[in-house]
């Protein structure tokens, strides 16, 4: 996709992987296949792999540049990570050219000023670190890593997240704790700004402390809403949670609020896993919302 311009900022997508992901009836326990007939947009090749019926799944970082900032929103799965849980096997020992793609966009690791981890799940923190001489070191050593205070408490140091999902232990060990140990973390609360025009807002439910990043500049708005929306079909069925959402009722309420806010503000929605073209606008329609994907 071409770079987007949001006022004084540019936004580019740095791909890690783009593949068919989950079958819809696995990802969404409430899935009803009639949604594909009702909304043919959802069957376009960017969103659904016709051969397998699986939903297209992107792993990417959003690169935001402007006003002296070079900021990454979420960092995918990372290379060379060991994952023992059966559900994590697609993320084992990856060897993707993510840093080369970042370089192709004109960004060296030392150029990155901020890394925002919207939440601390396996597929959002991987490129926080890289392996060097057998040790996990910060991949962006000059950056401040921005994490939600609630999310951090949820996963680290005996929080409820880790108690419920002990398989996250190895993710925290190789991709989260080394950043904290290096003193690179800035914890943020709801409504806190990273810089003028960039505001973190709580969006809980998928995880306890997930935060979305809102970008506003020159009257234009984008929202990096991460896993509040896994797939475009949730714009038509905001009541469908993914099986990975921790608190179902909270996640539904957050999704409803996000869609209302994004439609009201005509924001470009830039989630973490939508297939091509990876983002778009939310339109109000009778009884709900519709999706207007970005031009390819
Ligand atoms: Zn995710």
Structure notes:
It is a single chain. By secondary structure, the chain is an alpha+beta fold. The chain has a single domain (4-293), classed as Metallo-beta-lactamase, Chain A. The protein is built from eight helices and 16 strands. The strands form three sheets. It has a seven-stranded mixed sheet. The protein has a seven-stranded mixed sheet with strand order 10-11-12-13-14-15-16. A hairpin with a 2-residue loop joins β10 (193-195) and β11. The chain is globular. It starts with a strand and ends with a strand. The mean pLDDT is 96. Bound molecules: zinc ion. Zinc ion (ZN) is lined by residues 121, 123-124, 227, 272-273.
Domain count: the total is: 1
| Portion of residues within helices | 10-25%
Radius of gyration of CA atoms, rounded to a whole number: 18 Å
CATH superfamily: Ribonuclease Z/Hydroxyacylglutathione hydrolase-like
Number of helices: 8
Bound molecules: zinc ion
**CATH class membership:** Alpha Beta
CATH fold name, please? Metallo-beta-lactamase, Chain A
Average pLDDT metric: 96
Task: Tell me the number of strands.
Answer: 16
**Low-confidence stretches at least 5 residues in length (pLDDT < 50)?**
none
Can you list the strand order of the major beta sheet? 1-2-3-4-5-8-9
| CATH architecture designation | 4-Layer Sandwich
Question: Strand share of the residues?
Answer: 25-35%
Molecular shape: globular
């Amino acid at each position: 996709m071409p770079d987007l311009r949001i006022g004084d900022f540019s936004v580019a997508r740095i791909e890690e992987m783009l593949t068919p992901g989950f079958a819809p009836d696995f990802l969404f326990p409430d899935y009803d296949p009639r949604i594909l007939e009702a909304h043919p947009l959802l069957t376009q090749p960017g969103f659904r792999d016709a051969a397998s019926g699986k939903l297209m799944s992107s792993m990417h970082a959003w690169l935001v540049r402007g006003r002296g900032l070079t900021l990454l929103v979420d960092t995918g799965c990372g290379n060379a990570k060991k994952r023992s849980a059966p559900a994590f096997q697609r993320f084992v020992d990856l060897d993707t050219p993510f840093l080369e793609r970042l370089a192709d966009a004109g960004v060296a690791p030392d150029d990155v000023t901020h890394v925002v981890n919207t939440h601390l799940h396996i597929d959002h923190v991987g490129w926080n670190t890289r392996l060097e001489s057998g040790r996990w070191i910060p991949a962006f050593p000059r950056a401040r890593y921005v994490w939600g205070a609630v999310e951090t408490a949820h996963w680290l140091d005996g929080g409820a997240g880790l108690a419920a999902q002990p398989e996250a232990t190895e993710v925290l060990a190789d991709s989260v704790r080394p950043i904290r140990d290096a003193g690179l973390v800035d914890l943020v609360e709801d409504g806190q700004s990273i810089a003028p025009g960039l505001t973190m807002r709580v969006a809980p439910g998928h995880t306890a402390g997930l935060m979305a990043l809102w970008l506003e500049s020159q009257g234009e708005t984008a929202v990096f809403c991460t896993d509040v929306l896994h797939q475009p079909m949730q714009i038509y069925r905001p009541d469908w949670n993914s099986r990975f959402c921790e608190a179902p009722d909270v996640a539904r309420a957050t999704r409803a609020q996000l869609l209302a806010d994004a439609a009201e503000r005509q924001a470009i929605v830039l989630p973490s896993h939508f297939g091509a073209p990876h983002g778009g606008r939310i339109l109000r329609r009778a009884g709900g919302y519709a999706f207007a994907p970005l031009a390819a």
